Amino acid sequence: MGPREVSHKQSWFAGGGLFIAQFLTAANSAPIFWYGGRLLYRGEIEYKHVFQTFFILVSTGRIIAETGSMTADLSKGTNALKAISAILNRKSKMDPDKSDNFSSEKVRGDVEFKQVDFFYPTRPQHLILKDMNLHIGAGKIVALVGKSGSGKSTIVRLIERFYDPTHGTVEVDGIDIRSYNLRGLRSHIALVSQELTILAATIRENIRYGRENATDSEVIAAATLANAHEFVSSMEDGYSTYCGERGVQLSGGQRQRLAIARAILKDSTILLLDEATSALDSESERLIQEALEKTMMGRTCVVVAHRLSTIQRSDKITVLDKGRIVEEGSHSELLAEGENGLYFSLVKVQQLAAAA
């Protein structure tokens, strides 16, 4: 049964329930007075008994009518419970606690994509990555650039194993990530994205979410490295300041620095930065860029960048176009390609936009 048929069925139930309730409310007076009149005529009851019965039944009818008007809400609630139950009972294809998978207390952080094809389950006709071969050496900083929709963020999601590749393998230290215990794999990876997860909790609790057993001094050290300690200390409640739902009590730059502090505290081998500064003003971006440069030292870093000025010092810049790698090299090497290169064109476009 499709959504349209379900909607029609709900409407019929709601309309039928309301009709019955209203009909009973309006029609119950007639039999009351008819039968009550007969009993009065025979002298079996008094007038007060007729009116007592009338008011009791009218009150009952009103309650039934109100219940009938709730039929639509009850139907929606029932469908919502079914949807929740389906989600709770659904077995994930990726079991985070599967014990027979490979688990490692430490990884070097060498990441490699081998002939990876990928499409999202909701869009199987649209191939996002095509025959992707990408190597990210341990401890190296690799930037991913390209036009919107070229597959940059998809690479980050595959490393985190939010999805599995349609074809090919993604390997960490030469081992297919599907062979790793999922929870163990993600313990070695930290992600800072444009769409942040800030809990409705204190600043301290939000930073500590990166490592729940961290001490207060470790939290402060991480915040200091992320250029967050100064603004946190200036607040009346300091690290006990409540962030609000989704961090509404903080500015965009402050939320971003908290996310970086969380990643620093996690102290993971692999750091993924997905458009971490794209929505910030220049001052916030400068502070966060300083924090990121401190954070990236000694880690394998994958940086998805919108502003190309922030990734010029990367060990390697990988340029994507329509799901394929079209150029690789350092900033200076790619600029040397001249006007024929896609990276050169992207840099020129941003320079013109900044000058305008």
From TrEMBL:
Descriptive protein name: Multidrug resistance protein
What superkingdom heads the lineage? Eukaryota
Q: GO molecular function terms here? A: ABC-type oligopeptide transporter activity; ATP binding; ATP hydrolysis activity
The source organism is: Rhodamnia argentea
Keyword line: ATP-binding, Membrane, Nucleotide-binding, Repeat, Transmembrane, Transmembrane helix, Transport
What Gene3D superfamilies does the record point to?
ABC transporter type 1, transmembrane domain, P-loop containing nucleotide triphosphate hydrolases
Looking up PANTHER family in the UniProt record yields:
ATP-BINDING CASSETTE TRANSPORTER, ATP-DEPENDENT PERMEASE MDL1, MITOCHONDRIAL
UniProt keyword Cell cycle present: no
